[in-house]
Specification:
Blueprint lengths: L11 E3 L6 E3 H16 L2 E6 L5 E4 L11 H22 L5 H14 L2 H6 L1 H7 L3 H8 L4 E3 L5 E3 L1 H15 L4 H17 L3
Length: about 190
């Protein structure tokens, strides 16, 4: 099992269609893995595209991580309260739709901006097509002098996350994501 992605719940919930089921553990893993895939793990600090000092799983508020397992502990401590807050604000959404909001919250740092967005309003109104369209516009990063530019990495991330929003994420996607995350762990053995 990959660290930082465990859940104690065991019910099964339909996500894609009558043929595809994800357990609650798998849904929690998907939420964690989507973020980790996009952020990637770095033991040494670096400057992200927005110029912020970053380390671990895209942490901007942590100066150092010992190893990937330490980063997982920090990640878990960050992600749990984010999910709880999203769950309180969006109880009507599916788990994977909430996971997308958690990922966006993790990435942007502001649930307030998300709540005011056309994306969130469309999602709450069950207009998935409009929600996905508006969500994909969250693909810009603020660089020098407050200028926003389209980020190739965010375009890829948002396209991937959109599959969680519209229900097209399937077991094949899950297995591919699991393989990609496993590779990150293999490359960062401690």
């Amino acid at each position: 099992m990959l660290a930082g992605c465990a859940s104690s719940k065991h019910e099964q919930i339909k996500v894609v269609n009558d043929k595809e089921l994800f357990t609650s553990t798998q849904k929690y893993q998907i939420m964690c893995w989507v973020i980790k895939k996009s952020e990637n793990y770095r033991a040494d600090s670096y400057r992200c595209q927005a110029g912020k000092k970053t380390v671990g799983w895209g942490f901007t508020n942590v100066s150092k991580v010992k190893d990937i397992h330490h980063a997982d502990e920090i990640f878990r401590d960050i992600i749990e309260p984010l999910y709880q807050e999203v769950n309180r604000n969006y109880p009507q959404l599916t788990y994977l739709q909430k996971a997308v909001i958690v990922s966006l919250y993790y990435n942007s740092g502001s649930l307030t901006k998300i709540k005011k967005s056309d994306f969130a309003k469309a999602l709450v109104n069950n207009d998935t097509k409009r929600a996905v369209k508006n969500f994909k516009q969250w693909n810009k990063v603020k660089v020098r002098k407050g200028k926003f530019i389209v980020s190739r990495g965010l375009v890829i991330r948002r396209s991937y996350e959109a599959k969680l929003l519209d229900g097209s994420f399937n077991m094949s996607d899950y297995n591919k994501l699991k393989s990609e995350i496993s590779q990150i762990y293999k490359e960062n053995k401690s």
